[in-house]
Structure formats: structure tokens, C-alpha cells
Design brief:
Elements (H helix, E strand, L loop, with lengths): L2 E5 L2 E4 L4 E8 L4 E10 L6 E6 L5 E3 L7 E6 L4 E6 L8 E10 L5 E5 L3 E6 L1
Parallel strand pairs: 2-11
Antiparallel strand pairs: 1-3, 3-8, 4-5, 4-9, 5-6, 7-8, 9-10, 9-11
Amino acid sequence: QVQLVESGGGLVQAGGSLRLSCVASGVAYSINTMGWYRQAPGKQRELVAAVTSGGTTNYVDSVKGRFTISRDNVKSMVYLQMNSLKAEDTGVYYCNAEVLTLGRRKDDVWGRGTQVTVSS
């Protein structure tokens, strides 16, 4: 079973930067797409950025040009570099992984989240 643990959240002023990290541990046949989601107070969770095992990335329009997702398959880690942060980027950021278990079952795994607060 795969577990995800996020780190790197915190409080930052508008215009600042943060780097989120997520490490996957446990045993699986493969870990496919990994991504970052966020949930602001009173809003639904939304996809921020995702990266496939082959390195293809996609971003929500609101973060394009400011955020960069990257992945280290050897270390089973995914990162989110967030620059030019805005107050509307505030929320809990969750790491997600699409996992194929040893039994070839698809699992959707979530971390517990890390808080990002951007002060204006």
C-alpha cells in the first residue's frame, strides 16, 4: 500500500515563493500520474497541476507561468514550485497519486495535505 506525505507549506507574503514536496512510500506495481490539488475554504478541491510518469505536465489556467510541477521517479517524489504567489492561492494542498497495486488494481491515493497561506 502506498502512502503520501506532503511538506513545505507555510505562510508567505503575496509575491513570494514556496516549494511543496510529496514523497510516496510503500509497495506498488507502478505509480502513474501524480498531482497537486488544493482546497480553499468553502470551495471544492481542484486540480492545480499534474505530471505523468513520462513527464507530461498540465496546469490549471490560474497557475500557468507561476507554478512548476516536477517529479523524481527514482525517489518517488513530486514537487510543486510556486512563485509569484497570490492571496487566492491560499488553501490546503494535497498530493495525489494514481497507483497500480501489485494486484493490478488502480488506487487513487491522497496525502493528508499541507496548508499554504498567502497574505496580501
